[in-house]
Structures are given as C-alpha cells and as structure tokens.
Amino acid sequence: MLTLNVLYDPDCGLCRRSHEWLAEQPKLIEMTFVPCASEEARKRFPQLNHDLTKKDLTVVSDDGAVYFGPKAWLMVLWALTRYREWSYRLASPELLPTTKRVVSAISQNRYQITRLAGLNR
Description:
This protein is of the alpha+beta class. It has a single domain, classed as Glutaredoxin, CATH 3.40.30. The protein has seven helices and four strands, in the order E-H-E-H-H-E-E-H-H-H-H. It starts with a strand and ends in a 5-residue tail after the last helix.
C-alpha cells in the first residue's frame, strides 16, 4: 500500500481542520484528500455509496480496500509516522469498543463541535 485516499467533508469545519492537520503530518503512507460526494470523488470511486461518505470519514487504499468511520480513522493514524503506534493501541481488543464509540460520537456531532470550537467558515 502506497497511498490512502481520504474523503472528507469540506462543509464541516472540524473536517477541514482535520484535513489541514493530516496534510501537515509526516507520513509513512502518502495521503490524497478528496472532498466527499464531489464530482472528483464520484469519478475516482464510482463503486462507493457517496451519500454514505458524507456521513463519516471514508478512506480508500490504492489497492481498493474501503474503510469507513472508526476503521478509516485508524487507517489514517496508521499512515502517520508519529501515530502508527497509537493506531495499534486504539485498535486493540481492550480499546477498540471505546475507540468506536468516541469516533462515532464525534462524527455524529461534528457540526455542533464545529460551531462550539469556532471552526465555521
């Protein structure tokens, strides 16, 4: 695996800030960022349910594997030089249920978090 394609929501301030942060991080696996449900995303990934990609982070590897929600976040962390070890910890049997709950709660409330954090455009 050489590249992860990260589909993010450009209408969400938290998502935009996460995209900026990820772009700045040293990586073990390269990342390409694509706005979800965009024309570019639909052309590059016709097999995806693009309405679903607007609901949570979606990652597509260069070998065609698709990761959604908490698994997508774990893949993104796994690709980062400084956070690969964290991806293993958060995916461990002891922490994975909590990881899933926390990531899902953030995703479901990302617009409210955006407003509270002052990340609106």
